[in-house]
Structure formats: C-alpha cells, structure tokens
Amino acid sequence: MDSKATITVYTKEKKESLGDMFGIFFEDLNHAADGGLYAELVQNRSFEFAPIDNADYHPLTAWEKVERGNAHTEIYVDKEHPLIEKNPHYLVIDIVESGDGAGVMNIGYNSGIPIKKGENYLFSCYARGNSKSALPMSITLALEGKDGRVYAKNEITVSSSEWTQYEATLAPNETDYSGRLVLTTTSKGKLCLDMVSLFPEKTFNNRPNGMREDIAKLLAELKPKFMRFPGGCLVHDGSLNADDRDSMYRWKNTIGSVEQRPSRRSNWNYNQTLGLGYYEYFQFCEDIGAKPIPVLPAGYDPHHQRIVPIEELQPWIDDALDLIEFANGSTSTIWGAKRAELGHPEPFYLEYLGIGNEEVGEPFFERYEYFHKAIKEKYPDIKLINSSGPFAAGSEYERGWKSARENKSDLVDEHYYQSPEWFLANYHRYDEFKKDDPKVFLGEYASWGNTYYNALVEAAFMTGLEKNAHAVGLACYAPMLCNVDYVNWKPDLIWFNNHQVFGTANYYVQQLFMHHQGDYTLKVESNGLEDPGLNDSYQPPGGKILVGDGQTPAHYYDIKIVNKKTGEEKSYRNCLLENEVVELDHIEWENYHLSLKAKKIGGRRGFKIYFGQKCDKNTLFWEIGGWQNQDAVLCSEINGRNACLTQSLFKVETNREYHLELEVKGRHIRTFVDGALINESEDKIPIIEHLYYSASVEDLTGDVIVKVVNVQGKPVKTQIVLDQIEKETITGKIYEMSGYELNDENSFKSPVKIVPKQKDVTGSANKVDYEFPKQSITVFRFHS
Ligand code: AHR
C-alpha cells in the first residue's frame, strides 16, 4: 500500500481551457432515429420501404391486412395520384366485403406498438376516398393487442376524394408493449392512405414531431457539451444526386413538413424517414444544452468511390454555407427566414462544422480545401473539422493531419474502436501533441464492449484526454444508441427496446466526466506511488505463424523465416489455399524476418498473416486487402478484441505475385510489399499506471475537481493535497464507481447495477487521505 503517496493539485495553477471537451455523437444506425429516439410509433408510415433499403423490405413492410367477420379486401401500394411526388407511394384498401371491419394494421417496431395506460396517442394520416359514391367513409381507429383486445378507439370520417389530413387522439385503458394500430371500416369501396402516423402525446419537452421521452431524458442527463450528428458513415455513403433514393445524407432533404421529406436508404440497411431532420437535431441540441456539430458530406463516398467532379462541387459547398445561414443567419436571409418559418427565429448558434467523416483517399482532401476556403471566407469564426480516417495511425491518418495543418483546420476528427488493452497502452497518446497544431476532435471512440472493465479503461483514458487539453478539444464515445432488436454495431452507450432504455457502464463514465468536466485543467502531480505493473493481458513475444484469411483463394510460396539474432533460417512448404488458414510454425523468437510470395487467385479480399499467435483470440496479424480490399492493416487482438495498430491504403490484384515481408523486432513491427514499406508500428505493452488522474476547476462554483482511476486489482492508498488552499477543513462530494466484477454489465433487468455512488468527503486542512478501491473510478468535487 502506498501509505506515503500523494496526489498534489495546484489549485491556483490553471493550465488549459477544457472548453466543450465532452459531448455525444448521434448516428442513425441500430435504428437510433426511426424506431428509436424519433418518437414515431408507426413503421413505414408512408409506404416507401423498398428492397433498396433492405432486401427483405417491400412497400407493405410492417403492415398487415385486417378482415373481420366475412370481410374481404385487397390491399396494395400505388403511386398514380400521390400526396407528394417525392414520396409517391400510398396504400389502397379496396373493400369488396366489409363484414365486421376491413382495413389494415401496423405492427410498429420491436414487439409492436408500445401502449401505455394513462397516456394519449396522437394519430394522423392523409386519406382520400377513391370514388365520390363511397364517401363519406367512417374509419375506426383502434389500439389493440396481438389477440385483438381493444385498448382505445376513435373515429375519423373521410369525406373527400382529395388528399386531406385527419387527426384523432387515442387514450388506451391498458398497457401493452406489443400493440397494433388498427384502421378498419365497414364501408365498401376504395380508400387511399398515406403518412399514417402515431406519436405519444408526451414527447421530450412536448415537441411536436419530437423525441421519445425516456431516451431523450437519458441523453439530457448526460449534460453533454456538444452533439455530433447525424453520422458517421451514414453521411458519406450514398449516391451523389440528392434526389436519388440512396443519396448521401443531404440536410436540405430533412427539413420542412415531414411528408415533404423524401424517404432515403440508409447504409445501415434500413429506411430513413428523415422525420428526425436537421431542424429537430438543432432543436434537440438546444433543449439539452449541447452545441450542435453537424457533419456534412464532401461530395465523396470512400466506400464506393463516388466522386463529385471539382467543377461540380459548388452546390455541395453551398449546402455548407446555407447550413450555417440556416443555423445562424438573421431572419432577413433566405435560410434564416426558413428557420424562422419552421418556428425558430432565434439562431441556433452554430460554432462547429464537420466536413467529411473518417475519410480515406486523396479525392476527399482535394475537395476539403475548397470547402475550407469558401466557409472560412464567409464565416471565419466557424470552427472547421477535418478528417483523419477510421484508424488511430497510418498513412490516411497522417494524410488527414497533413491536410488539417496545410488548411489550418481548427480540429481533426479521429476515430478508433480498439481493445481495452490498446487504450491502456496508449494512455500517453496525446502527451506529445503540439498546442499550436489543429486540435483533436476524438469524434468516435470506444473499447470493444459494454462491461465494467471497458468503462474503467475508458475512464482511465479520458483522464489522459483531459490532461492533454492543450491538444484535445472535443471527444465523444460512439455509437450512442442501439435498439436491441436491430443491431448494426456494438458496443453502444445506451440500449433500448420499444419501452425500456438503460445506460451502460460506459454511459455512467461519460456522465461522470460530463458532469464534472470543469473549465480549466489544474497542474497535478503524484509522489511516492508504487511502480506500475503489467496488465494481466500482457503477452510475451513469440507464438504461432499462420497464413490465409479463411475465405480468399490464394497461393503462398517461397516462405522462409530468419532469426535475426542467431541467423537460423527455416523454410516452409508452399500453401495453395481455398478457404483455410494454415499453421506454418510456432516460434519463440523475438527478432525475425518472414518473407514469402503470395498470389490471390479469386475472392474479394487479399492476404493475411498471423504471427505471435497464442491462440485464435490472442494474436497479431497483418492483413493486406481486407475489408473492401482497400487497406493493409497491422492488428493486435487480445482476448478476441481487435486493435488496429496502423493502416495504409492497399489494393490486392488477382493473379499478381506480391513479395510480402514482415519484420518483427520485439514490439516493433514493419511490413513491406515488393520492397516498399507499407506498415510500421509499435505494439505497445499495456502497462498499468499506478493511478490515472486529472484535475480541473469549475469557474462558476470554484469547485476543484479531481478524477482518479485505479485500474489495478488492489486498492491504492493516497493522500490528496489541495495545494494553495488554506482552510481548516475542506469539504466536498465523492462520486465513485467501484465494487463491480470486471465483466459486470447493466441490462434491461438490472439497468442501474453499475452507477456512480455519491458520498461526502471532508479533509483536515487541505488534505484528504483516501483509499481508492481496486478497479475504481473516483471523482472528488471539493467546494471552494
Ligand atoms: O459508429 C459506427 C461507425 O463507425 C460510423 O458510422 C463510422 O464513422 C465508423 O466507422
């Protein structure tokens, strides 16, 4: 135990502004918007679902025919006389025999439409009778259970053969989370329906077309300083024409009345109604006190290499300029007036704008310059965010930084999803970053998992972000929301189904850092803490060598390994692989050189070489032409969780011979293709620091905040000294997460198993003796 150890906080020595450091990132994936935060309960309300969204979708997805008694009806989707040209499809119900009721039902998302007793539900739709003779048509609206039990009923009367909007309220007398919205009539004839909508009356802040209250509340309770939106890959994956069904995310498509917003394919394999659009995003940011950080596409889709010619870039740049005007312009400007018309004459005070999302490839950087110049010329105060790709290091990462420096971008968006051990090993990542460079916007990061261990490691890493506020401007965990029945990506900060929501352990770490960010970092140092140890996951060098990625037909030959220390040389048999991975050897060497020739014979990917493999969950590998055959990556996998150490662009051609070389010098790894250096990285050892800590001061309260994370499996006793405070006693609060198993998680059953606990703290004079429990996260808030 470090009984004489101290952490000294120099309470009057303000260092760096923490600005807007900790915020959130919203991307519509995992049904985060439709079927998530956006409170609409009807799925496929405008009958626009189609196979372009998802191979299993069709215009009647989530709709079923209803025939009661001897009713007989046909339902189909038409587009001959649409309500809106942009969303042409509508439903036709052709009632031949109405029996006890003929019509349709919507089954909502997840298990159905969540119906709560005591709440009101606002129904609306556009309808028209198809022939005057069948009018008026009385339509019964009902909220029912799966078994047909009726919880709420109301009626509308369709009296026109022109599209007309109808509204009604439904007030259920029971709770059922597997409900259905049922529309039936006992009239005969044809009825056309479009934009069939059901919202809970209670949305977050009672906004019409608003947000689901429970999810929004959880977001608000984070108190984020900013919100990045609406993606992610969602933003830049798509066609270049804004009118295409699968266009890139174009913000002008997302404002105005909801029926006017064109339905769009999302790259996450579902349909976006765009009901949650830019106006709602800005409004929501305002409601939760977060600065908006929109991300715009730059006319380049790196996933499919769709590229706007430079001479056609202006409309894309105009989109950026117009967005700034929409957010900030006076009501006498075109887009400021539009904002006012939508209900918000006051500006939204946009300060930051992201151009591009994890971009790779020269075409992006060529185009970025044009955006940057035009935006800075007109709006010099807008802080522009450049992109450094989806990896923590390598050629595209460096390319992003180069562009940011050349253009004088304010921030650079870094993204990485890595193993917990990588986060520990890279705690000092930003220590050497320069103050006068663009600032880091860590726009997406997470360790793989939602266990307490992940949260603990992220907390440790975040103290490193705070300590390096000279270099790190903004940071947000990603992704944020996940509907448990529609998972595109794990881990996520918040999980929900159609009626429940919970924050993960990671959520509560983010919350601690947001609630207790402070305005300025303070100088802080430790003395007398024991030397750090190695994490349990530390793997000594050596292990198996294997070739093949298990799916790409390829020929690996002329394979040899040389021990660089002893000169020993080994050769191996040629491997003609179909879809297997072949073990070559198990070596315990620390310094060696592997050389081989490889030829891809077919398939979509390229080559893979495993080395230093202890088992298939603990291995290093070099993959050339992996996902989308675009990259060469060096990765380290620990306990089945990957960390990409470095990446370079590389495409493997079929039937071409490549000379591949891998050079291992302890933890230092280099790779070569045909003699050219491709990857170089240090597989850093996940050393555990004695304690991870940072300190800050909050201007408004004068409170001194000290965050301490103990990752070790044993308690650490330390004295906290608040230097330059002269008092008989210091008082404050402690917020602490501790006492959990490392693999504990929150869940629907135990949503708050892992949450910070609060207690008082008192110290004599300016000192507090404290024993940090093993594997704990502690935040002290000392009152001035
Ligand atoms: O957050 C999930 C995805 O991860 C984002 O869309 C993308 O930016 C990143 O690759």
What hetero molecules are in the model? alpha-L-arabinofuranose
Rg, Å, rounded = 29 Å
Number of strands: 48
**Which stretches of 5+ consecutive residues score pLDDT under 50?**
none
Given the helix and strand composition, which structural class is it?
Answer: mainly beta
- Taken from the alpha-carbon principal axes, the silhouette is globular
Q: Number of helical segments?
A: 10
Overall mean confidence score, pLDDT: 96
Oligomer: single chain
| Portion in helices | 10-25%
Can you characterise this structure?
The radius of gyration is 29 Å and the shape is globular. It is 14% helix and 40% strand. Helix 4 crosses helix 5 and helix 6 runs parallel beside helix 7. It has a nine-stranded mixed β-sheet, with helices on one face. With 784 residues, it is mainly beta. The site of alpha-L-arabinofuranose (AHR) has 13 residues, from loops.
Record the SSE blueprint:
Blueprint: E1 6-17, E2 22-25, E3 63-68, E4 72-78, E5 90-97, E6 101-106, E7 113-115, E8 121-129, E9 137-144, E10 150-158, E11 164-170, E12 176-185, E13 189-200, H1 213-220, E14 226-229, H2 233-236, E15 264-266, E16 270-272, H3 278-288, E17 291-296, E18 300-301, E19 306-307, H4 314-328, H5 334-341, E20 352-355, H6 362-378, E21 383-387, H7 395-407, E22 411-418, H8 420-425, E23 439-447, H9 452-467, E24 472-477, E25 481-483, E26 494-496, E27 501-503, H10 505-515, E28 520-527, E29 543-547, E30 554-563, E31 569-572, E32 575-577, E33 582-587, E34 591-600, E35 607-615, E36 618-624, E37 631-638, E38 641-649, E39 657-665, E40 668-673, E41 676-682, E42 692-697, E43 704-710, E44 716-723, E45 729-737, E46 757-764, E47 767-772, E48 776-782
Parallel strand pairs: 1-44, 2-14, 2-24, 14-17, 17-20, 20-21, 21-22, 22-23, 23-24, 25-26
Antiparallel strand pairs: 1-28, 3-6, 4-5, 5-13, 6-12, 7-12, 8-11, 8-13, 9-10, 9-12, 15-16, 18-19, 26-27, 28-42, 29-33, 29-35, 30-31, 30-32, 30-34, 34-39, 35-36, 36-37, 37-38, 39-40, 40-41, 42-43, 43-48, 44-47, 45-46, 45-48
Helix pairs in contact: 4-5, 4-6, 6-7, 9-10
Bound molecules: alpha-L-arabinofuranose (AHR).
